[in-house]
Amino acid sequence: MATPQEPEPDWVRVRASGKINLALRVGGVHASGYHPLATVFQSVSLFDEVSVRWAEPNRFTVSVVGEQADQVPCDDRNLAVKAARLLAQHYGPARLGADIVIRKTIPVAGGMAGGSADAAGALLACSVLWDLDTAPDELRTFGAALGADVPFQLMGGTALGTGRGDELMPVLSRGSYHWVLALSEHELSTPAVFGRFDELNPDAPDELDLPTEVMNALVAGDAAALGAALVNDLAPAATELRPGLARILQAGAELGALGSIVSGAGPTCAFLAANEAAAVDLSVQLSSQGLCRAVRRVTGPVPGARLITA
């Protein structure tokens, strides 16, 4: 099977970006099992590649290469396979099938929506491969059926998410932001983090205030104001489950980050730097402390899932 490194002419390749939650306000759990969210997403320049080609009707295979590939299921549990199957079921399972190859760079279970990015990549790649002429709004509807983060992973940029996080509105963001990511050796279960949040916040509100300070800082292009406004209601739960995260966040602050935040449900920690030079310096110093698996420098906002070749 071909890989994204050496694509054959019959492969369609899509690049899908990771995300950071610049603000994540969380309400009390509903009877449906979901929590109301008010979040500001930003796509950043850490990418997975999803490649697809025609397979026999109703046959869907997936292989995964790259960082932490051994932690990604290669069967029907894989979100990219679920995405391809969902699209095929709607447009004609008797004639559609796909082989899928995912090249991982976004951390697995790291709070950066890597699985959702792969689902978004598969939706876009398969719609092109099968010549479905599916509109972006339709793809986001399919994405919402797969997971709350998938519609944003298709959209990209910077956006306000409400409801489950899948009701999106673009947010004006001036300039580019420089982030340093501390990647953890171990994954963190999103359900476990939300469960601990519920235990810590039995009276969490149903109605959430919008994160206006974050949005105002983005409109102004003020990195210092954005760093001061970063907020994540899940951070206390994540740091209880992974106490080492508190030390990483403290180290980033001591090393001069404008702001620090646990990304999503964690365990990836994101540090905002004043500029590229400050990000380089911060990444070097943070790497030298040996507190995390790896350190990456990224920028945002960037587009969501985008076609590379067809």
Features:
single chain; 310 residues; alpha+beta; Ribosomal Protein S5, domain 2; Alpha-Beta Plaits; 2 domains; four-stranded antiparallel beta sheet; 4-diphosphocytidyl-2-C-methyl-D-erythritol kinase; ATP binding; isoprene biosynthesis
Structure description:
By secondary structure, this protein is α+β, with helices and mostly antiparallel strands. It folds into two domains: 160 residues, Ribosomal Protein S5, domain 2; 124 residues, Alpha-Beta Plaits, CATH 3.30.70.890. Helices cover 34% and strands 27% of the residues. Strands 1, 2, 3, 4, 5, 6, 8 and 12 form an eight-stranded mixed β-sheet that branches. It is globular and about 55 Å long. The N terminus is likely disordered. InterPro entries: GHMP_kinase_C_dom, GHMP_kinase_C_sf, GHMP_kinase_N_dom, IspE, Ribosomal_Su5_D2-typ_SF, Ribsml_uS5_D2-typ_fold_subgr. Pathway: Isoprenoid biosynthesis; isopentenyl diphosphate biosynthesis via DXP pathway; isopentenyl diphosphate from 1-deoxy-D-xylulose 5-phosphate: step 3/6. One of its GO terms (biological process) is terpenoid biosynthetic process. It comes from Micropruina glycogenica.
